[in-house]
Specification:
The chain is mostly helical. The protein has a domain of 73 residues: Winged helix-like DNA-binding domain superfamily/Winged helix DNA-binding domain (Arc Repressor Mutant, subunit A, Orthogonal Bundle), CATH 1.10.10.10. 48% of the residues lie in helices and 10% in strands. The chain has 6 helices and 2 strands; from the N terminus they run ααααββαα. The protein has a two-stranded antiparallel ribbon. A hairpin with a 2-residue loop joins strand 1 and strand 2. Helix 2 crosses helix 4.
Length: 126
């Protein structure tokens, strides 16, 4: 059996960032376009300071990028930031592949052999 995924291979900040439902909602909002803190905060019943804390955690996790334009800072989704999560989940694909292969074998073993049909749809008599 392959070695289990090592936590140090994948930054724990990504998983910390995704653990909170508010931060997952922020990621969805930012998937459409970049936004300022005030624009993001307008989607939630919380202070701009609270939204800023969530954005900092998302940034630390590599899930968003920031861009300064004058006095404003724009936040945007960083899709490649999800790669560590994809990699970690990819380890478990082997279990799905094995389970689906076993299911396919079981179904094929249990299926009755069908009788060949004639062109009219009736079964042939041997």
């Amino acid at each position: 059996m392959p070695h289990s995924p090592r936590s140090e291979t994948h930054p724990p900040d990504v998983f910390k960032a995704l653990a909170d439902p508010t931060r997952r909602s922020i990621l969805k909002i930012l998937s459409g376009n970049e936004m300022t803190i005030a624009q993001v905060a307008g989607n939630f019943d919380m202070t701009r300071a609270a939204v800023k804390k969530h954005l900092n955690i998302l940034n630390d996790g590599g899930l968003i990028t920031t861009r300064a334009a004058g006095r404003e800072v724009f936040n945007a989704l960083s899709p490649h930031g999800l790669q560590p999560v994809r990699d970690w989940l990819g380890y478990f694909d082997q279990f799905w592949d094995d389970a689906l292969s076993d299911l396919k074998s079981a179904i094929e073993t249990d299926l009755p052999q069908s009788n060949p049909k004639t062109t009219s749809g009736e079964t042939q008599n041997d």
